[in-house]
Amino acid sequence: MSDRRDDSYTDHINGAQVPAPQGNVVTHSRPGEVPRRSLRPAIWIAAGLLLATLIVPTNAGAIHIVRFAPSVGYAQGGPHNVTYHVNLTDTPSFDPRFLTVAEGATVTLDLHNNGSYSHSFTLSSVANRTLNSSWTPAQLDANFSAHPPQTGANITLAPGGMATVNLTYGASYAGDSFEFVSLVPYQFQDGMWGFLNVSLNSPPYYLSENTTNTPAFVPDVLSVTPHAYPAVLNVTVTNVGDFMHTFTVASQTNVTVPQSFGAYFVQYPFLTNTTVPAGPPLVAIANFSVPAPGIYMYICEASGHYAAGMYGYLYVGVPTPPVAPTPSTAVVDTWILVGSLLLVGIGAILAVAATYSGRWPRSHGKHGGHS
Ligand SMILES: [Cu+2]
């Protein structure tokens, strides 16, 4: 007993050659049989190519990471004590105006009058008392006569003058806030005030930022997860380009700074507005504190830089997004992923189809094979 088709096939090839009828073509296929074998490699190659598109988003991500690496700068814990460089300006203002020191730690205030008028740094010794900005200069003086300023923290600086103040607050002051003002008439009333906050014993957090000629901040996302608030941040900003920039952090959370940021920052004073010099030392330290969790936007105030995309986000106590929030890049990445998923799905369907249409290379011996 044997396969009739094999017998007939053997008989055929061993028999006398018969010329094909005119107009017909002789093949090994039976009438109506589709030469499917030639299609199967095409199906498998197509499926393989489509599955290979899995590599596309991986590569796109790699390019993205290289371009922005590191896309997120994470804070490092630092030493206990903290130093602030506080400018006394003719605005008139203190910059920065919100300072924080942990209980038991020493805060060093490097005061610098970089204006053309005299200013004073006068720190209240009364905790959690906000001075009344509608007071006259005489009423303000009367207040400090009744409640003398913090010892060693009532200093008047001539233009260009500098002074250093060291202060330490014990644990009983944790959570307290002390206002400081300028006693030069009408400067306090015009906005020259700030607050020194005593936080729980949490260290300052150290971050690194760079400014480039693009112009851009690299990274454009900073992340810190403080244990207590307000939290002291110490951001080292390095200028790796040739232009002057500023590292200007908004005080509102979850807000996009408007393009006309000048008016905005008058209404909502920034947490810090640190100049990043174009020449040596090319490094600036931004000391400031953040009062609460949230996303704080930072921008460069140099003309045209913010509009050209020089901004970033400081994530405080909230998780950072998986991709840096650069809108155009995020959209491209999303569509690459969606497109790849579609292609992978098609590839999988083709692979299943190829499985059901038969194995390839096809096993021999069932029919049409040479024994
Ligand atoms: Cu800039």
Question: Your description of this structure?
Answer:
The protein starts with a helix and ends in a 15-residue tail after the last helix. Residues 1-36, 55-70 and 365-371 have low confidence and may be disordered. It has helices at 4-14, 40-52, 55-68, 137-146, 261-267, 327-356; strands at 72-74, 76-77, 82-89, 93-95, 98-102, 106-113, 119-123, 154-157, 162-168, 177-181, 193-199, 205-212, 216-218, 221-224, 231-239, 245-253, 272-276, 283-290, 294-299, 311-316. It is α+β, with helices and mostly antiparallel strands and 371 residues long. The radius of gyration is 36 Å and the shape is elongated. The chain is 23% helix and 31% strand. A 6-stranded mixed sheet has the order 1-14-20-19-16-17, with no helix packed on it. Helix 3 (55-68) runs antiparallel to helix 6. It binds copper (II) ion (CU). The site of copper (II) ion (CU) has 7 residues, from loops.
Concise overview:
This protein has 371 residues and is of the alpha+beta class. The protein contains six helices and 20 strands.
